[in-house]
């Protein structure tokens, strides 16, 4: 007599939620702990939040469980000064005025499997460094109280618009006990003397052999963590922990061009309509009405172009592309995603802007749209454009 045992596989470990883990993907039948929020995503990206407990989802639906926090991370605003940082205390908040929360879109668009606190903190650090480098935020030395309040307001708006999290506290912190800038410079010199030109040219904060802050302690392994614990139904190219190395939020360099390209196109497909909708809801000065409408039209055309993007591996139905051309196309989609990240940052500055700042911000919007259009055009082109002759 043969006996069959129908044993269900053990559920995921949710004990780290609220501590080292922000969000975790669940399967039907898994148990979500009581302090957490369950988000169910449909096949087209529609999200609905449900109460914690036993997960129930339909065919083609993905389920995430996240703890609202609060969380504390240390980030380095300036890569050239890694011994000084900011300690952020944030939580995932809900806005009752919107149909889909921004954090829900971030989960579905940029993460899969697990979202660790270290990976999310590294993403916040990259976004903050990019804003300071471009002059969108100002944090001068010997900051006055007024300058600090202006920086805090800009940081709060950036993180809420980009990730859907609310900053509860932000204070300067000395990271001298975690990082030694001299060791970083020595490591860089050693790599340069060994002939590793790529490592020598990389940003200073990525060359440390030891963790720089508690945020980045696990950031280097965030992608390996995603590879190990992703569900079988995860989207190709999605990754856990969010972006860890660049503002473009791309997957790890170890992934092949097809996965990187799929991740970039997925972000553009999911986020461009939401970004366009949020820009449409802005209160626009009368003199900026026409440029604003032109911006919305260009973003609408970008969204249409993404939905009809050709396959990475084919130049035509009967003509496959070589590996070098596929790599070029993947780089082009990364350019478009970098412009998308800049557009989210621009939205964060447009929302509180007064009429006097709109002309400058609309010029920035024109530049971002041009980069987005250039990336899309290069991604669609079957061949690289001919190089212009040098005079």
How do the strands line up in the largest sheet?
3-2-4-1-7
Low-pLDDT runs of 5+ residues are: 197-254
The amount of helix comes to 40-55%
Give me the count of strands.
Answer: 10
* Helix and strand sequence: EEEEEEHEHHEHHHHHEEHH
Radius of gyration: 22 Å
In terms of structural class, how would the helical and strand content be classed?
Answer: alpha+beta
Mean pLDDT: 78
Q: How much β-strand is present in the residues? A: 5-15%
Termini, distance in Å? Answer: 87 Å
Overall, the morphology is globular
Counting H and I runs of at least 4 residues, what is the number of helices?
10
Report the major sheet: 5 strands, antiparallel
Describe the secondary structure blueprint for this structure:
Layout: E1 21-26, E2 37-41, E3 47-50, E4 62-66, E5 71-75, E6 84-92, H1 102-110, E7 114-116, H2 117-134, H3 145-163, E8 165-174, H4 181-193, H5 197-201, H6 222-229, H7 257-280, H8 289-307, E9 314-316, E10 319-320, H9 323-350, H10 358-380
Antiparallel strand pairs: 1-4, 1-7, 2-3, 2-4, 5-6, 6-8, 9-10
Helix pairs in contact: 1-3, 3-9, 7-8, 7-9, 8-10, 9-10
Question: Quick recap of the structure?
Answer:
With 391 residues, this protein is of the alpha+beta class. The chain has ten helices and ten strands. Strands 3-2-4-1-7 form a five-stranded antiparallel β-sheet. Strands 5-6-8 form a three-stranded antiparallel β-sheet, with helices on one face. It has a two-stranded antiparallel ribbon with strand order 9-10.
